[in-house]
Design a protein that fits this description.
A hairpin with a 2-residue loop joins strand 11 (about 175-180) and strand 12. Helices cover about 30% and strands about 25% of the residues. The chain has about 375 residues and is α+β, with helices and mostly antiparallel strands. The chain is built from eleven helices and 21 strands. It has two domains: about 5-45 and about 145-205 and about 335-374, FAD/NAD(P)-binding domain, CATH 3.50.50.60; about 85-140 and about 210-335, D-Amino Acid Oxidase, Chain A, domain 2, CATH 3.30.9. The mean pLDDT is about 95. Strands 5, 6, 7, 14, 15, 16, 17, 18 and 19 form a nine-stranded mixed sheet that branches. The chain has a six-stranded mixed sheet with strand order 9-2-1-13-21-20. Strands 3-8-4 form a three-stranded antiparallel sheet. It has helices at about 10-25, 55-75, 90-105, 115-120, 145-160, 205, 240, 250-260, 265-270, 300-310, 360-374, and strands at about 5-10, 25-30, 45-50, 80, 85-90, 110-115, 135, 140-145, 160-165, 170-175, 175-180, 185, 190, 210-220, 235, 275, 285, 290, 320-335, 340-345, 350. The longest helix has 20 residues, at about 55-75.
Length: about 375
């Protein structure tokens, strides 16, 4: 008789655990509080972003997740574009960081130091006036998160050993049984992957955990006319100090000090600017990072204006019309950890706290967690 598991939450972490369990022959029931996933997993750039990950275990996990995304895009029939990424440098110090990163990555991953003319060949959207150079890496890819998450859930639900219970909020876990009001289900193992709702089931655990929540503001611009494409996702200087992957560059601390003097308000709001384009031609832009357990439910127009204003210093588009704006909230560890994996009892595990790297790391982490537990 097959062993069974319950996964609470159908965001990317829950789907990754479900996929890994299903591949091992387990019978899996996914229970999601909404009619379909609507949380942080669909409110992001859709970037699978190895370049941002620290070298070693986390980068390897990102690369394994990338392989799985490509596999799932074929099985679940959603678009996945292997774009690479461009980080643009407009000062000598930023360009120095690019050079140091490229040097440090020799033999580990792709990393190329491009001239302004080479950069323009990669992206017609990149502004070359004042451009000193750019970092080009090949591993990054883009999915449309709304399409990818929903179609991945649909695909998993089509498998013989996976079922979903939609629109059911779990209110209690007792031993190997979970409850939604008077309704209940039981299984050999239970995985709690509830994202930003983390305190609902185990408030005492989370009050003793170095974890917080992050609110990000993002926007989507309309489909660009005549199927115009920007090429790879574009980032500028502030992204260098945002991602751990760039910590290998010795000049990064000097660059951070310059930004602290030059852009104090941007850094206070956790703003770093990126743009990606989905398969439909729409541009996703952002984002900000505000931390705390009680976050303002209202979006700030001045934050969106700052994002748009800075983006216009390094990117040029055919149509800047905003189609939609939103915010997402995700859990993030405050102690530098890349995830929170915690055993409540012999049956129940919490998997959470991937921060803003859920799309990049979850599929690889799902395999690692199931290997470790099973």
């Amino acid at each position: 008789m097959n062993q069974s598991a319950i996964v609470i939450g159908a965001g990317i972490v829950g789907l990754a655990i479900t996929r890994a369990l299903s591949n091992k022959g387990w019978k899996v029931k996914v229970i999601e509080r909404n009619p379909r996933p609507v949380g942080a997993s669909i409110r992001n750039f859709g970037m699978v972003w190895p370049v941002g990950q620290a070298q070693g275990e986390t980068f390897d996990r990102a690369m394994r997740s990338r392989e799985i995304w490509l596999e799932m895009s074929k099985k679940a029939r959603f678009g996945a574009e292997q774009t690479g990424s461009l980080h643009l440098a407009y000062t000598e110090l930023e360009n120095e960081v690019v050079g140091e990163y490229v040097y440090a990555m020799q033999g580990f991953k792709s990393a190329h130091h491009l001239s302004p003319s080479q950069t323009k060949e990669k992206s017609p959207a990149a502004i070359t006036l004042g451009l000193k150079g750019a970092l080009w890496t090949e591993e990054e890819m883009i999915v449309n998160p709304r399409e990818a998450i929903w179609k991945t859930a649909d695909y998993l639900e089509s498998l013989e050993n996976v079922t979903f219970e939609w629109n059911k909020a779990i209110s209690q876990i007792d031993g190997n049984k979970v409850f939604s009001g008077k309704e209940s289900w039981e299984a050999d193992l239970i995985f709690v992957c509830s994202g930003a709702d983390f305190e609902t089931l185990y408030p005492e655990v989370y009050s003793n955990t170095p974890i917080t929540k992050c609110k990000l503001q993002m926007m989507r611009l309309v489909k660009q006319p005549e199927n115009w494409r920007i090429g790879p996702p574009l980032c500028a200087g502030l992204s260098f100090i945002h991602y751990k992957g760039f910590h290998v560059a010795p000049s990064l601390s000097k660059l951070k000090a310059v930004y602290e003097d030059q852009y104090p308000e941007m850094l206070d709001l956790g703003i770093h600017i990126m743009v990606s384009q989905n398969g439909s031609g729409q541009l996703t832009i952002g984002d900000s990072h505000e931390y705390g357990l009680h976050l303002d439910p209202f979006d700030r127009q001045d934050i969106n204006d700052k994002i748009l204003g800075f983006l216009k210093t390094f990117a040029s588009f055919k149509d800047w019309t905003t189609e939609s704006s939103w915010h997402g909230i995700y859990p993030k560890m405050t102690n530098g950890a890349t995830e929170f994996i915690h055993q409540i009892n012999p049956q129940t595990w919490i998997v959470n706290g991937l921060g803003g790297a859920g799309m990049t790391l979850s599929f690889g982490l799902g395999e690692e967690v199931t290997e470790r537990i099973l």
